[in-house]
Queue: 3 jobs
Job 1
Amino acid sequence: MPEAATAPIGSIPHAALTDPYPYYENLRASGRVHRLNTPIGLEAWFVPHYEDARPLLIDPRFSKAAHHSDVVHEDGQKAESSFADNMVSTDPPEHTRLRKLVQKAFTRRRIELLRPRVEQFTDDLLDRMERAGEAELMEDFSYPLPMMVIGELLGIPVEDLADLRHKSVFWFLEEDYAGNPVDHFRARQAAIGEYVRGLIEHRRSHPGDDLVQGLIEARDGENRLSEKELVATVMLLIFAGFLTTVNLITNGMYALVRNPDQQAKLVVQPDLIGSAVEEFLRYDSSLSLIEGHAKEDIEVGGTVIPADSLIIVPVHSVNRDPQAFPDPHRLDITRNPNPHLAFSHGVHHCLGAPLARLEAQVAITALLRRFPDMTLACDPGEVRWHRDFFQRSLHALPLRLKP
C-alpha cells in the first residue's frame, strides 16, 4: 500500500466560494486526492473525482460520527451542540436505528399528503408576485414557501416562522459576522434547540397530527428516540428541510433564466419537471460538500488518507466531473442518466430528498405556468453568491415577470 502523504499542498482561495467550478476543474486535473487548508481553518483531504467519491461514501471506513467532528474552542473546551444526536452525525448501527425510527414518522405518504398545501402556498405567493409585476425571488418566494411547508409539517405556529427563519439562516464567511463564525453558528443552533424543546413539550400536552407528534410516538419494539435524539432530529429537519429547498428553487430558476432555451423547453414540456429538478440539483447544488472522517487508513486514487483525517467530497466538483457527466457545464433538463451526489449516497442519502423534490417540482412548474417569459431584472454581473464554504446560495434574484 502507498505511504500516506504528510504535507498540505495548498489552500482553497476565497474566490472559489462564489465561483467554485474553475477551481475544482483545476483541482481534478492536478490529482486524485488533495490535502488542503479550508477557508474555516481546518485541514482536510479533498476527493474531487466522481469515480473516487461515490464508492468512498459507502465505504464503512468513511465515518460520519459526531465525535469526529467536535468543535474545540481556542481555550480547549468542546462546544456543546444540541444538533449532534441526529442520524446524519452517526454511523451504523446507531444510524440504522435512528433512521428506521424517523422513517416510521417521515413517510412518503405523509410527504405526498402535503402536496395540496404546497400547491396552495405556491399559488398564494404567486398571486402577490403577479400583482406587483416583479419579484425578488428569494424574499418573495424561495424563502417563504419552504418555511411554510416546514411549519405545516412540524406543526409550527405561523407567527413563529419569521423568527425561526432568522435563527436558521447563516453563512459562515460573510463579512457581517464578526468574530468566530463557529461561535455564531453554535449560538444559532442553541436558539433553535431551545425553541424545539418547547415545541416538543407543547406537543406532548397538546397532541396533534404532525411530524413532531409522529416522532414522539415512533417506536421499534421497545426502542424509541431519546429526548436528545428527538430534539436533534427536529432541528435537522428545520435546517436541512428549509435552506436546502430555498437554494434548490432559487439556483434552479437562476439556471433557467440564464439558459432561455431550457426555460422555453420546460414551459412547453412541463412533464420534464422531474428530470429538470435533478439537473438543477447537479448543476448548482445547494450543498457544497459532504464531510466525514477516516476511521482507519483509506487508500483513494493511490494515496493513503491517514486514520482520523477529515475528508471532504466537494459536491460541486463531483457533480461537474466530465468523466461522469458529459458536457458537465451545460444545463440539460433532459439529462439521463443523472446520478448526481447532491443528496449524498448510500446509507446517508438524504431522507428529506422526496420532500425537497416535491416542493421544487410544484414551485418551478407553477412559476413557469404563471410567468413563462420571466427574465432576470438586472445585469448578470450584479447577481452575487454568498461567500460560504458549506452551501451555495444567492444574495438575491430579481426577476421581471411577464404574466
Job 2
Amino acid sequence: MNRPATPLQALQSRRSFLQAGFLTLGGLSLTDLLRLRAASAAPHRATPDTSVILIWLQGGPSHMETYDLKPNAPLEYRGEFNPIHTNVPGMDICEHLPLHAKVADRFTLIRSISHGFANHAGGAGRFLSGRDPLRPLDPLSQFPTIGPIVSRMREHVNNGLPNYIGNQPRVYGGGSAYLGESALPFVVGADPNLDNFQVPNITMDDKLKDRLDDRMTLLASFDQMRRDIDQNGSLKSIDKFNSKALNMLTSDKARNAFDMSQESAATREKYGRHKWGQRALLARRLVEAGCSFVTMQMQNPGVQGCAGNWDIHAVNGHLYDDLRGRLPIFDRAVSALVEDIYDRGLDEKVMVIVSGEFGRTPRINPQKGTRSKIMQPGRDHWPGAMSVLVSGGGMKMGQVIGSTTANGAYAKDNKLDPNDLLATIYRFLGIDQHHAFLDHSGRPMPILPKGSPIPELS
C-alpha cells in the first residue's frame, strides 16, 4: 500500500516540479544548469575594463615578405621585396607596408614564436589553444581556443554587448571544444563596407517590446515563489544570463556599436573602403563599446588575382603578384586600427594582435600554378618561425622581440612559444591561465598547460 507523502516530501516534490518547470520554460539542459550553478556559486574577481582584437590571417602569412625580411640571404630565400625603414630605428619591414612604417612606434613585432604543426587546422589549434592537437587535420579544435575561453571566463560581464564577436563562427582549426557551442562568438558575417550593412537579432520592434514587458511583469509576480525554491542560486544565475540577452535586445548600445554610419567619411576612408578596412573599424567600435574579444578574419581581399587566404603556395598563386595586391589593403587597415586605438586613448584598454597560424618556408618553392599553368614562386607551410604584431594593451611598443636565423628558418634569439603570447593576453584580460575547466571525460583542464607572459611587453 502506498503511504501518503510526508509534508517534507511533498515540499521537495513541489520544488522539483517547479524547478523542472522553470528549466523547461527556459530551454536549459542539465549541462546549462550545472554551468549556471557554478557561475552563481563562484565569486568573480574584479574584471579589468580591457579588450582584445585578434586580426586573424588564415593560411599563414609569409614572415619573409612582411615583418622579417632577409635582404642579405641568397636570392632563393630573400625573394623579390625589399625592406624599408620605419620610425623605429632598427625595425625594418616590407616596402609594401609604408603606412605600418609610420606607426611602428605604436606596435611591437615578435619574430621568434614557433611551434611544431605545419598544417592549417593543427597550426591554428596549437597557436590559439596552447595545446598540441590530438587530430591535427580536424578543422575543429579538440581544445577550446582563446575566444571561447574569454567568452566563458567573462560571461558574468553584462554591458549590453556579446563579450565575444567574430565575422565567422570559428577560425579554421579553432573552436570551443568542451566549453560548448554557447561559447562561440556572436557572428557578424555581413560586409561592413556595404551601404546596407546591418546586423540582425540585436533589436526588436515596439510590438515585441510590449509583449516582452507583459512577460516580464508576469515573471516578476513569481518572485516570492522563486525565493522559496532557489536555495542554491541557480535561478539567480539564470536571471543574470537572461538579463544579459534582454539588455542587448532592448538597449541601443549594441545597435549603436554596429552602426557604421556613425563614423565620418574621413575615418572610413582612412581604414580603406573595403571589407578588411571596415572590419578593422568595426572591431574598434565593438571594443570601444565594451566587447571583450573580437576576432576579425582578413580573408578574400577582393582583389583580382589574389587567393582567398594567405596560403600562397605556388600552386595557389604567384606569391609576389598576390602580395602586391593584398598588402596595400592590409597595410591601410592595420595601420589605421593601430593609430586609431592610440588617438582615441584606447591603448591602455585595448590590445591588438595580428597573426596567422604559422609562417612560410624560408626557401621559395616554384611550382606550376593550378590556374596560371606556368612556373611561379610560392612558399609552403612553416611553423619553425613566424612574426606577430602586438599593439596597445598598455605595453611597451616600438620594439622587436626575438630574431630568426640568417635565412629566416628558425627562431634564434628569445625563442617563444604561442603559449607565452596567450599568457600575456590572459593576464591583460584578468583571466587566470591556471583556471581549470572539465573536459568531456570530467578531467580538470587548466586554460594553459604552460607559458608565461612575455616580460618585454610588460
Job 3
Amino acid sequence: MKRLFLSLTLGVIVVAVVLVVRTLTFTSRQVAAEEGTPLVVDAEAASTRLAGALRLKTVAASEGQPADDAAFEALHAYLREHFPRVHAALKREPVGAHSVLYTWQGTDASLRPVLLMGHLDVVPVADGTESAWVHPPFSGVVVDGYVWGRGALDDKGSVLAQLEAVEALLAAGEQPRRTVLFAFGADEEVGGTQGAVAIAALLKERGVRLESVLDEGGVIMSGTVPGVSAPVALVGTSEKGFVSVELKVKGEGGHSSMPPPSTAVGVLARAVAKLEATPMPTRLAGGSRELFERVGPEMGFGMKLLFANLWLTEPLVVKQLAAKPTTNAAVRTTTAVTVFEGGVKDNVLPSGARAVVNFRILPGDSVAGVLEHVRETVDDARVELGTLAFQSEPSPVSPTDADSWRHLERSVRQVFPQAVVSPYLNVAATDSRHFVGLSDNVYRFFPVHLQREDLARIHGQDERISVSGYRDAVRFYAAYLRNTAR
C-alpha cells in the first residue's frame, strides 16, 4: 500500500511539473507590430463616398422578388465616378447581371494572383421597422462620427474600403508585382449562385490558381475572449457547412373525436424532440482549437495553464464551450428546428405534418453524415426525410503556417498594433466557400474594430460603421495589398 501511495504521489508530481512547464513555455505567437508605409486617408471624404453608396437599395432577388436592376446599375455608375483611377488602370469585367471582376495586373506573371472579395447586395429591411432606425436604413448619412445605413458593415463597407485603398495606391504611383483580383458579387445574401459561383467558374475555366483569397468574415472584437484584455482580430480559417433537413409525416385525417394513438403531429414532434435531445458530438479542432492556442498565451496564469494543457483539459474546455449557444457553435454541428407545420383546425386530425431542421456543419463532418445522424436518431419509418435545395459542405481549414497567413497577420499588426491576431471558425456562410477549389489559403476577415453590441447591427437595426474605423479598414487593405502583392 505504501508503494502504491508513493507511486501515486510521484505521478501527481510529474503531472504537475509537466503542467507548469508547458504553461511557462506557452509563450506569445504574435508577430512584432511594425509601422508600415504611411497611407494618408481623408476619412471624411471616404466616409462621404461610402454613405453615397449606402443610399442605393441593392437588395438581391429572392423568393420570387426581382432585384432592383436600376439600383445595381446606379451603384456601378457611382463606383466608376468616384474611383476614376481604379477604372482607368484595372480591367473591369461584368459577370452575370450585376456582379463584377476587376484585375489589377502585376509586373511578374510567374506569381499566382491574390483575390480580394466583397459583395454589393444587402439584406432587406423588414417592412414596418424603418421608423425604429435612428437614421432611415437607406439614408446613407454621416452623423456623430458614424456612417449610417444598410450595408455599412455587410458588406459595402468592405467593398468600398478596398476600392479606396487601390485608388490611393494608384495615386501614389504604386503597382503590384503580383496580380490582384477583386470579385464583387451581387447575390451573396441569397447564396451567390449568380455572382461568386459564376466568377469562380470563370477563373477555373481560365486555369487560374490563386495564391490566397480574402473575404468578409471575422472582425476585431474587444471583450469577446474571456481573460484577454486586448482586442482580438478573428480571422476565419474555415467556415461551417449548411443543410436543412425536411421531415414529413403523413396522417389519415378525420375527426378528432376518434384519434389514433399518435397523430402525424405527434409522430413528428417525437422525431424533432429526439433530434434536439441528441445533438451531434463535440470536437475541438481546426480554427476553434487554434483560437485558444493563439490567444491562450495572452491570458493570465490560470487560464494559460488551462489552454497550454489541452491534452489533459480538453474535455473540461469543450464542456464549458458546449454549455453556451454562442460557443457551442464552435465545437459541434448545431441542430436548430426552424419550421414546424401541421393541422388546420382544432377538431380535425392532421393529414400531414412537416418540420425543417437546420444544421450548421462543423469542418470534419459532412452533409451525408448529418443525414445519417438524423436517420439513426429519429429511427421511425413513418418519418420521411429529405433536404431543401440549398446546401454546402464545410470548408477545408486554411493553414496558419503559410506566407499568405503571415502577410495577413503582418498587415493587421501594422494597422492595429494592439490587436491579438487569431484564427477562428466562421459559423456563417460567405461567398469565399465557392473559391476553396482555387486556393488552399482562404481567409475571412473584415478589418473593423467592433464592440459586442455592434454585432446585432449586422442584418439588424441601425447598421453603421465609425468614420475612424472605416479609415482604418482602408489603411488595412492598403497594407495588405503592399504585403501580399509586392
